[in-house]
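REQUEST ID: PR-0412
SUBMITTED BY: lab tech R.K.
PRIORITY: routine
TASK: structure prediction, single protein chain
INPUT:
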Amino acid sequence: MKSRRLRPVTRGAGIPKRWAAFDDLSPFFTAAPAGLVILDSSLQILRANEEMAIMLGSTVPEILGKTPRQVAPLLAPTVETILLKVLATGESKLNFSLRGETPKSPGIIRDWLASVFPMPPHHKAQKPRIGAIAVEVTGQVRLDRLSKDRALLTQAEDMARLGSWEHDCATGDELWSPNLCRIMGRSELQGKLPEAAFWESLHPDDRPMVHDVIARAMLQKQPYEYRARFTLPDGREHLLHTRAKVILNSDNQVIRRFGVTQDITEKLETERKLNATEERYRDLVENSTDLICTHDLDGTFLSMNDQPARLLGYRADDLIGRRIPTCYCRSIATSSQPTSPPFAAKLMSKVSSPFTPALANAAFGNIATP
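STATUS: complete
OUTPUT:
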């Protein structure tokens, strides 16, 4: 096995004599797998290694004697603040994250892990200097972010009871998300269902429909969706809703299908029970001879059932938007049934008054208001 040979350490050409004092750092600058730089008190670069120059999209001779604002103007506002603080306090700032653009890759956001520290002087007359080290971690940051995004997507899929999938039309290979595996009654380790098992799990009455929908989408190169019943390994039947689209290549040929599948079994069962409850409530309201209504705080009808309205000589629709005392007192005035004069007079005196629960009870006695 060949061993890696380090480049010979020499007092290279282009290093001015005033920087010769740093030659004891040459092996470190040459071999370090990180960007290294030494700056003076005015933030001019005294020494830098090739790794740092590459990060900045330049060469070592081009950045020597320049400031961060000259070699990395987009990073300078952040970097200079940190450098000046270390110079002023003499305290290091270690392992901080740095994010931004460099002349090497304009428009591309990159990430670094960096440290800045004061450097001891060689002699008393030497001005303060600071050193900095930076390691690019763009790839790791993107990988971490991708892992977090995947975890977030998995949680969202689980909450929505849906899963995603992709089908390669050329090879027949399919990729299922972990939650789609769970929806289909399989573990993540087991992975997707084989194609034959997929069609076998599909309800026999739904197979022709699903086959026709997919075939038509492939022919027309259009998105598609369907609802179909599937029998899971535990014998339970679930209703799944699938939405998908086709992916075309540069020749306008379908190469992949991508989609999401949602288990809507519980949703539809909840809707069915809710509809049944609403139907029973509607029957109760419409057939009840008791007054069942909703009204605002002024006593204006918002809704009411029909039977009590007919007893007052109205249709329910005629009373919506009218105030309760007015409606009731008018019905008293036109009624052929004897009414206690004191009671009628009391009601009429309250017609212009704000509607209150006490007034409602005085006027109607027991009123059912949901």
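NOTES: The chain has three domains: 17-136, 160-268, 285-364.
REVIEWED BY: pending
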